[in-house]
Amino acid sequence: MSHAAAVNGAFATMGVLLVSTAVTAHRRGGPASPARGAFTAALGTLGVSFLVQSPAARDLQNGLISNLGQLTGNGTTLIAAYLMQVGMVHILHDRPHAGALARRWLLPLVAALVGVTAFFLATPTAANRFTSPDAPAGVVAYYLVYTGYLAVTLSAMVLLLRRYATRVDDRHLRLSLHLYAWSCAVGMLYLAGRIGALVVGRVDPGLMITGDRYGLLEFVVATVVPAIALVLVVLAVLIRVVGRALDHRRAIRRLQPLWEAIREVRPHAVLPVSGPRLRLYRRVVEIQDGRLAAAAHVPPATLAAIDRTCGGSRAARDAAILAAGLAALRAGQPAHDAAPPDEDEPDLAAVVRHLERVSAAYSRLIVEGAA
């Protein structure tokens, strides 16, 4: 297999993998959220970036404008970086605040896209000179805009990921987030190497890297550093997926005696394999898990105020506690030694009816808060 065919295969494989993962995640459904939508779109956009930068795709684009694949590939990378940043802020902040931040960051993205496009079109340059030390000044300006935007975005991602890691109890997710942050840091090394090769020789011609030394630097910057970042991302995914799977299997084994004892007396409570009833069970479990986590973050003074204002309505009280707890979680406030929510429902049907009332009260509370 020729070198060009191998490179084409690598770019096409990575692009198709990312795009298909994004499409599958979108079609699979699950709980819709701005964060999920942003990360899914980011995966798809990164996939497109790989596809348009493959040598075969570049050859097709060269028929329109020389080296057009450079612009389309870098442009889609900028968009993907913005979408990842938007996804992270939607995890760390409530929707209004996250939306405001996303709109604020949209202007720098548009400015960066306009800037790289303008410098690219104003400085027609062959592909073999686009990253060389003697590249035209317009190409250097192109990379300054490109790497500058990505450097700021990656720095923000590192801070956001580390902040998110301090809030999670799942050790596998926490380690994965740190690995993602290190991957972003390695990405900044790539940017520094890319812009350094273009700028250092212009500052001091004696420092210009040429010949074999430039070939080695280009190999390290364009191949080794991205490979390290990719390995860190793969490790992060494997640690989270495999680690959680092992924890779940271990927990299932430990819960087996308890589950078997309950199944003998209440066999109808065993989860079905599929269908609406299973989805209802899962939804109830997920809601109850969230209620327990939220209630632990409500300060005692807030809890006392809720008791005074909600009167005898248990659903309104539970909705207010949930709203206060979720706000505390978003703000990163510590947990308190609070009693868990009162639960006296005898079976799943009663729990569902109570949660329906809580959901209605919560919706009213949000509407009143927004008014």
Write the layout of secondary structure elements.
Elements lengths: L2 H25 L6 H19 L2 H8 L5 H25 L2 H28 L14 H29 L5 H33 L7 H55 L10 H20 L4 H10 L4 H17 L17 H23 L1
Short structural summary:
The protein is mainly α.
Task: Characterise this structure.
With 371 residues, this protein is mainly α. The chain has 2 domains: 3-246, no CATH class; 272-370, no CATH class. Helix content is 79%, strand content 0%. The protein contains 12 helices and no strands. It has helices at 3-27, 34-52, 55-62, 68-92, 95-122, 137-165, 171-203, 211-265, 276-295, 300-309, 314-330, 348-370. α1 runs antiparallel to α2 and α9 (276-295) packs across α11. The longest helix has 55 residues, at 211-265. The chain is elongated and about 75 Å long. It starts with a helix and ends with a helix. 25% of the residues are buried.
